[in-house]
Each structure stands twice: as structure tokens, then as C-alpha cells.
Design goal:
Number of helices: 5
Strand order of the largest sheet: 1-2
Shape: globular
Largest sheet: 2 strands, antiparallel
Radius of gyration: 16 Å
Helix content: 40-55%
């Protein structure tokens, strides 16, 4: 198993650069979850309400989608999520890692 290292704030950088660095570090080291590709893509139909994000164990994004469903933001981001999931190769059980 890969050893996790902790992100360290660089005192020579400003707030914005440290924030960007922290987000990139988090994205690289976040825990990925195995989800059924077919079910995820079907839940994208309810994507404006964040159903596919809750299924993928991303409750913060699910709440963001739910809070912004009236604006069209979540519908647009659901289309992006669907486009990302389409070319992913499923394993022998039909699962993908998100």
C-alpha cells in the first residue's frame, strides 16, 4: 500500500498559490471509489439533483449540485461528469473508479 504524505504549506508562497497547491495535492491523493458504470450513468439522469455524486460517495459535491439545481449549473456539470464516465473502461464486473 502506498504511504500517504501530508500536504505542507509553503511559507514562501501566497494564499492563492498555497490554495491551488493544496487542491492539486488533494486531487492527486484523494481516495477513489469503485462504482457501477451503468448505474452511475443512469443516475446522471437525476444529475441535476446530485444523485450520481451521492452514489459515487461524494456528498459535498452532491449537496452543491442539489443547492444549485435551479440555476442550470448542476445540469451542465452533470453533462461533463457523463462525458468523463463514457470513455472509462469498466473492469470485468462493470465497475469504474471515480
Amino acid at each position: 500500500m502506498e504511504e500517504k504524505t501530508q500536504w505542507v504549506k509553503d511559507p514562501d508562497h501566497g494564499f492563492i498559490w498555497n490554495t491551488i497547491d493544496h487542491l492539486l495535492y488533494w486531487r492527486e491523493h484523494r481516495e477513489k471509489h469503485c462504482v457501477s458504470r451503468k448505474k452511475y450513468m443512469r443516475l446522471c439522469i437525476l444529475g441535476a439533483f446530485g444523485a450520481h455524486q451521492f452514489y459515487a460517495k461524494r456528498p459535498v459535491l452532491g449537496l452543491l449540485y442539489l443547492a444549485t439545481f435551479w440555476s442550470g449549473f448542476s445540469a451542465a456539470m452533470t453533462i461533463v461528469d457523463f462525458i468523463i464516465a463514457v470513455p472509462m473502461k469498466p473492469d470485468e464486473d462493470g465497475n469504474i473508479w471515480l
